[in-house]
Amino acid sequence: MRFLVAVAAALVVAAPSVTFSQAQRQPAQYPDVIYVPTPHEVVDDMLRLANVHKGDVLYDLGSGDGRIAIAAAKKYGIRAVGIDIDPERIREATENAKKAGVTNLVQFRQEDLFKADFRDATVVTLYLLPDLNVKLRPRLWDELKPGTRIVSHQFDMGTWKPEKKLESNGRTVYFWTVPAQKK
């Protein structure tokens, strides 16, 4: 009987450390979408459709491996910020920025894009799901300056109709400008 009590006590003591170490390997929050990289040709079309130019500040919400922010910094010399909830994607994006030689222009932040501060953006890029775009829309309207350009790969924003639409390599790219008078 004493043996069973000792085993049970050892399990109770050991259980929290097992749970804790498992929790350390888990992201603080799981991504709302699975990671699917945007093809490089679509990245180029997104940046061109957004009319990215010197002086812009680009935020890529759900930045994955960082390819959009890195391309914007490399091609246009602008400051870019990638936001992603997945720590593995942030590590990968940071390493990709080092390889591309743009760490002076690009930053990647592990944050929830629904809580992150991106008010200084002049361009926002997205590759999220339609319901997430719609959920994010009020923040885009409320927090971004009028004239801020928004480009989404593959998914629209529900009732907010795009100003432009482009077919790129079998994919659709949508473009909006934050209005002066919010809809």
Explain the overall architecture.
The structure is a single chain. By secondary structure, the chain is α/β, with parallel strands linked by helices. It has 5 helices and 7 strands. α4 links the parallel β2 (79-84) and β3 (106-110).
Report the β-strand fraction as a percent range: 15-25%
- Cross-sheet strand order for the largest sheet: 3-2-1-4-5-7-6
Shape descriptor reads: globular
- Number of DSSP E strands: 7
Main beta-sheet annotation = 7 strands, mixed
Radius of gyration: 21 Å
The SSE string, one letter per element, is HHEHEHEEHEEE
Termini distance? 72 Å
Q: Roughly what is the average pLDDT, rounded to an integer?
A: 85
Helix content: 25-40%
Report the total helices: 5
Low-confidence stretches: 1-27
Q: By helix and strand content, what is the structural category?
A: alpha/beta
Q: TL;DR?
A:
The protein has helices at residues 2-25, 40-49, 67-76, 87-100, 130-143, and strands spanning 57-61, 79-84, 106-110, 123-126, 149-153, 164-168, 171-177. With 183 residues, it is of the alpha/beta class.
Question: What is this structure's SSE topology?
Answer:
Layout (H helix, E strand, L loop, with lengths): L1 H24 L14 H10 L7 E5 L5 H10 L2 E6 L2 H14 L5 E5 L12 E4 L3 H14 L5 E5 L10 E5 L2 E7 L6
Parallel strand pairs: 1-2, 1-4, 2-3, 4-5
Antiparallel strand pairs: 5-7, 6-7
Helix pairs in contact: 2-3
